[in-house]
Amino acid sequence: MTNFPGIIKSKLPRTGTSIFAVMSQLAVDHKAINLSQGFPDFEVSPELIDLISHYMNKGFNQYAPMAGVPLLRERISEKIEKAYGFKYDPDKEINITAGATQGLYSAIACMVRDEDEVIIFEPAYDSYAPAVQLCGGTVKYAKLEAPEYTINWQKVSRMLTNRTRMIIINSPHNPSGSILRKSDLMALEHLIKNMDIVVLSDEVYEHLIYNGEQHESVCKYPGLAERSFITGSFGKTFHATGWKMGYVLAPANLMKEFRKSHQFIVFTCNTPVQHAIADFLGNEKNYTSLSKFYQKKRDLFTEMIRPSRFRIIPSHGTYFQLVDYSDISDEKDMDFAVRLIKEHGIATIPVSPFYHKGDDHKILRLCFAKKEETLEKAAKILCKI
Ligand code: PMP
Ligand code: GLN
User: Do 258 and 142 share a structural domain?
Assistant: First the structure.
């Protein structure tokens, strides 16, 4: 076919294909062990799969209500109240989304206007900046600071202008595995008090937090809850990233705006999966055991790679582990990661694509949401490099 003959004025001229798609494809092409894109290599609970087929067979196959299946919204409300002591109204303050990605996009689309500024923290998950740019906004980049990828709130305060419309935070944090603590949330709450700034809090890894630490949801802080959208993802919580099922929480007046954009971006999401997850959420053991489950994997994996020449950077949450390879090579992280796939059969994610200027600190991200046997094979390879 011939190409479009006119001029394409790209809305995202500097955006390429997502690093997750690139590295996963390379892993497939070279039959490498894939610790790159974040997804489990083990199965979803058979009970949950049975529930989905049950609801499909029962005829729950047409459009769900725009906001999502009511029972699922009720169950989310109960779960959030139990965990964080804050109640979201299932009718007015909760919306089911096609994964967190669509929740993030719809929240940005309903809030950000031309020339509004949005602050994001780098290294940053890759969907935030393009979503802001597609909506005409300008991204203002702050940096998480070494060695623990923490936020310097004083620096953030100097970035605020009368155009600042939104601040996007993410805890537990992809890719670093850092977490925001009480003092961070209090600093943010204080910083934007009395300003027309909303917070978009990406909390998809809320249940993946280690060493007994507690997830600090923005909804625990009244001054933040009243101005925040929270995104959640059942893909992370139920090991089913391919189902693209998540939710957004926000106070009623923000949710009203959210639904205006949501209804024309996706309108509604997969019906039988919503019913099945509603049932499954009824048993809280189905998600409260996740931290223990993943901490075991993290600890096993880090112990196995400790003898390697990779330096382990502590991970407090998520299913990602950063490693510094500067004792092994001074290659660029992208070149090194590609070589690991081609020569050693192991796929990882270089961290430079999480920075708009491609900052290269010689760090790779490894996903440990894998079976023990996969982690053992991967560790053997890493120890030989
Ligand atoms: N935010 C972060 C930080 C993520 O790591 C992911 C995982 N892909 C998402 C959002 C998107 O989640 P989902 O797959 O539910 O769209
Ligand atoms: N969140 C996952 C990761 O960080 C994958 C996201 C994606 O493939 N878009 O690897």
Answer: yes
68 lines ligand 2 (CB under 6 A): no
Domain containing 106 — which CATH number? 3.40.640.10
Ligand 1 pocket residue status of 246, Cβ below 6 Å:
yes
| pLDDT, tens digit (0-9, with 9 covering 90-100), for 216-267 | 999 999 999 999 999 999 999 999 999 999 999 999 999 999 999 999 999 9
How confident is residue 132, by pLDDT bands cut at 50, 70 and 90? very high
Q: Verify that 329 and 274 share a domain, yes or no.
A: no
Residue 224 within any structural domain of the chain? yes
**Is the shortest distance between the CB of 18 and ligand 2 below 6 Å?**
yes
Residue 338 has which token pair? Answer: 């590609």
Is 147 in the same domain as 227?
Answer: yes
Domain identity same for 144 and 76: yes
Give the structural domain span for 38.
19-44+288-384
> Rg for the chain (alpha carbons), in Å?
21
- Of 239, 264, 285, the residue at which a domain comes to its end is 285
What's the pLDDT at 146? 87
The Cα–Cα gap between 232 and 281 comes to 14
Contact between 178 and 363 (Cβ < 8 Å): no
Domain assignment present for 180: yes
| pTM of model > 0.85 | yes
User: Tell me, what's the pLDDT at 67?
Assistant: 98
What is the CATH number for 322?
Answer: 3.90.1150.10
Q: Are 178 and 323 in a shared domain?
A: no
Q: Is the pLDDT of residue 37 over 90?
A: yes
Q: Measured from the CB, is residue 127 less than 6 Å from ligand 2?
A: no
Of residues 73, 87, 90, the one with CA closest to residue 222 = 87
Return the residue whose CA atom lies nearest to atom 7 of ligand 2.
20
Residues 6+ apart with CB under 8 A from 39: 241, 242, 367, 369
41 residue type, one letter? D
Across all residues in the chain, what is the average pLDDT? 97
pLDDT in tens, 47-86: 999 999 999 999 999 999 999 999 999 999 999 999 999 9
User: Which atom, in ligand 1's list, is nearest to the CA of 318?
Assistant: 5
